[in-house]
Amino acid sequence: MSALVNNGDTVGLASATGPSLGEAEFTFLREFVLQHCGISLGEHKRQLVQGRLLRRLRALGLSGFAGYCDLLRRDPASELGELASCISTNVTSFFREMHHYDMLVDELLPRWLEEKRGGGRLRIWSAGCSTGEEPYAIAMVLAEALERTGANVDAKILATDLSPQALEAARKGMYAIDRLGGVSDARRKRWFLRGEGAYDGYALVHPRLRELVSIQPLNLLHEWPMQGRFDAIFCRNVVIYFDKPTKQRLFSRYAGMLESRGYLFLGHSESMYGLSEDFDLIGRTVYRKRT
Predict the structure, then answer these.
(1) What is the pLDDT of residue 18?
(2) Which of 145, 152, 287, 126 is CA-nearest to residue 220?
(3) How far apart are CA 76 and CA 70, in angstroms?
(4) What are phi and psi of 235, to 5 degrees?
(5) Residue 21 domain boundaries
(6) Does residue 178 or residue 7 have the better pLDDT?
(7) Which of 30, 96, 123, 161 is catalytic?
């Protein structure tokens, strides 16, 4: 759930912190980010983007934004993930928008596991997984449903994001205790290992959850290597920052990746209204593929 940097962020004046982001460089960056990430950067984001990218310039040993733009022109693929990390803020938590998980527990997982009992295939995609809280929360309710029903089902969760830093954190699966606020006491005991010594104050996700979750880099605007279809896709708090054509293309592609009458979960402030004829709204930001 990598989200575009919010309007409340502030940065210091360029003269006090480093080189200035000129008009030509900002125009290029706006066009580059729109093309490769589907995100429209307004003029009011200029100073904010400047402040975020100054850290990247220092890491690369570049003296100015012109050199950074040249790097993107020469080898866009190598730097795209880092750029996305710089201009985005990963806002996420365990069991955020709990009504989605309630639907999984009460309705969808019992039905799917019954239908697929005896060796069927169940696939869920967390698209824009950020630092991993969402796919691991899905894994908790999935693992509990598998234990409860004893169903013999090939169940996996694909978790993807563009940000290298977010993916690294997701792969580690280690979270400060105060990040577990959305997790019940019972689930904390069942699905987390408490850190000791140097890791005091942290919790590590249980190996069983790691077995269920595959974490991979993916740009939603580029080619998708996945072959099979998904029973559900979670893409929450991601598309709100895309322009309308990008949203329309993405929803169409999601429809093509879902099983017949599969489910798409969006964020609390996102909607498909006027953007797709492939889905019906059936709950709070829950959509079902029509065929």
Answers:
(1) 79
(2) 126
(3) 9
(4) -135, 80
(5) 2-90
(6) 178
(7) 161
For 7, counting Cβ atoms within 10 Å of its Cβ (0-12 exposed, 13-18 middle, 19+ buried), the class is exposed
Mean pLDDT, residues 116-130 taken together: 94
Q: Report whether 109 contacts 138 (CB < 8 A).
A: no
Q: How far apart are CA 244 and CA 248, in angstroms?
A: 6
9 is catalytic: no
Express each pLDDT in 34-65 by its tens digit.
888 888 888 888 998 999 999 999 999 999 99
Q: Which residues of 249-277 are buried (b: 16+ CB within 10 A; e: fewer)?
A: ebbeebbebbbeebbbbbbeebebeebbe
Which residue is catalytic, options 52, 96, 187, 236? 52
The per-residue pLDDT for 89 is 66
Last residue of a domain, one of 38, 60, 90: 90
Residues 230 and 128 in one domain: yes
What is the model's pLDDT at position 17? 61
pLDDT at 11 over 80: no
Q: Is 58 a catalytic residue?
A: no
H helices of 116-172, in order, are 133-149, 164-172
Domain CATH code at residue 32: 1.10.155.10
Q: Could you give the CA distance from residue 41 to residue 54 in angstroms, rounded to a whole number?
A: 17
